[in-house]
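FW: tagging you since you asked about this chain on Friday. Here's the raw sequence from the shared folder, copied in full. Didn't touch anything.
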Amino acid sequence: MIRATLSLLSLLLCFSAFAQEVDTVYFNQKDKKVTKNDASVFRYDVTTTIEKNSSIHKYLKDGTLLERVNLEKKKKEGDYYALDLNDSIRITGTYKKNVKVDKWTSEDLRNGHTFIDLYDMDGVLISKESILSPDIRIYEMDDLDTHPSYKTGEDGWNKHLMQNLKYPVEARRSGAQGEVKLRLTILSSGKVAKVEVQNSEFNMYLAREALRVAQIPENWNPGIKEGKAVNSYMDLRIVFKLG
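HL: got it, structure written out here
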């Protein structure tokens, strides 16, 4: 009897050590904490914690899921979901030790666009794809009052190239050099939707690196027409030269 009691006590202690804790916190639109019954409740966060791991779910007052993220030892891990109400963007993807890996999808629910980013296991962006709404209008640069531009200007763009552009080993070995002409499709939001090579002839390795570097920046200053930001093309070139 004593042995059975000790076994039961050990089981209860073990269960207690791994007990699940659930905490719900309520917020108003200004992100200030309020009580559950407060009339200004806008959203609520439910945090489930087991030891050093936790799962956070953020909901609107009506139960609409705004964000779902898992934390392992305070680092983002596993499937991720977010709904940006302001921009009507739905994001899904996967984290591995706090970095983005594999396929990440951003759906522009307002305009009907879908953006797909692919990352390697180190969190390095490998490729970007986009599926644009079929009725989207894209302006040529000559039709614009103000051309799109890099967010920190020409100096910022040159700095970006210096920090990120890598001469492909295969191109260096073969002595390949020259310029890669690119056409960017930049949305009114400043997001790059597509990057295409415009050269009639080009070195595959140089083109691949030019595409990669041009796709890294998230936001540009969009083209302006009649005082409004619009979708437009932007042409630029990246020069590869062996020293």
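FW: The chain has four helices and 18 strands.
HL: agreed, and The chain has a mean pLDDT of 90.
FW: great, closing this out.
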